[in-house]
Amino acid sequence: MGTWPGGWTFGWWRACWAPVSGLTDEPGGGGPDAQRWPDVVARYADVVYTMAYRLTGNDEEARDVAQDVLLRLHRGLGRYEEGNFEGWLYRTTVNVFRDRLRKTKRRREDVTAEPPHAVAPESVEQEVTRTELREVVQRAISSLPPDYREVIVLRDIEGRSYEEIAEILDIPSGTVRSRIHRGREALRSLLAPYVEAAP
Amino acid sequence: MNEHIRSEVMSAIVDGESTAEERRTADVHLQGCAECRRALSELSSVRDLVSALPRLEAPEEVVQAALRPGRVRLLSPRRRLVALAAAAAVVVSLAGVVRPPEPEAEPPVDAFVARHVGVSAGNQSAGEVLFAVPGR
Fold first, then answer.
1. Domains of chain A, CATH where assigned
2. Which of B92, B87, B52 has its CA nearest to residue A119?
3. Is A184–B46 a contact, with Cβ atoms under 8 angstroms apart?
4. Contact assignment for B57 to A191 by CB distance below 8 Å
5. Which of A75, A114, A123, B76 is the most buried (most CB within 10 A)?
6. Domain range list for chain B
7. What's the whole-model pTM score?
8. How far apart are the CA of A184 and the nearest CA of chain B, in angstroms?
9. Higher pLDDT residue, A24 or B82?
10. Is the CA virtual torsion A195, A196, B1, B2 positive or negative?
11. Banded model confidence at residue A28, pLDDT cuts 50, 70, 90
């Protein structure tokens, strides 16, 4: 799940860029240039906002984080050299999230209503119960310590591998493994009524 | 006796991130251990609940701000309020600095002196009392 076609290898991000029309970089050039910025925004605004919302659990904070991340990406794009664009994007998002956490100190437990999502839902009734469940799950994620939240979001929302997460967060993959395990154990008890064991 | 699978390994198995050796050992153990099978399936259900959360749509305001990164950033309603409050606080504190000083209150020196003179006229002065040498 969520593994990019090119795998996590040097230049694999080329494979990620390719599907967006006109977003391949110039031959021999550095990374995507600032001219392509609208394409970057079109492609990644939802990714950044989703990750920001899953980390903060709050629409207002997610907007602020997403705006900051996109601003930093835009500022860094000129200096961006060939490498792992999405890794950079995830790292920037985590850094902005941590900065805000440090600044605001107070723990915001107030999970706001699930914002509209990118893919249209099927039926209204189905959607109501699903929205409720999503809010429960989001509240559980938001109550995790930030370290666990980061790895769970990168793993289960963004579908990154342990190795990729280790690289994004600059921690050993053994640490990724133990954080994911602790985060998931915490979620298991928080979400106990919704957790099903196969017979 | 077959040891239970460590929870950390179970989470890795759910993610397809366990080593081949771990997986082999776990498979053998799972055959005869309902408890571990249950734990594994619960962890997998937790993973499913989280990964079922949808991709969200970035608010138009965020997209627009990103497309004009040179412009002044839009502030969220709460931040706008904070900024307004801060501006008001600055105005108030400046008002305190700029306000013309009130005329200095002058102590009623004359009245004070007059009263003291009156008191010490008939008695010893304060200095005489303080430095009086016994027996003098």
1. 9-18+29-114 (1.10.1740.10)
2. B52
3. yes
4. no
5. A114
6. 7-51
7. 0.69
8. 7
9. B82
10. negative
11. very low
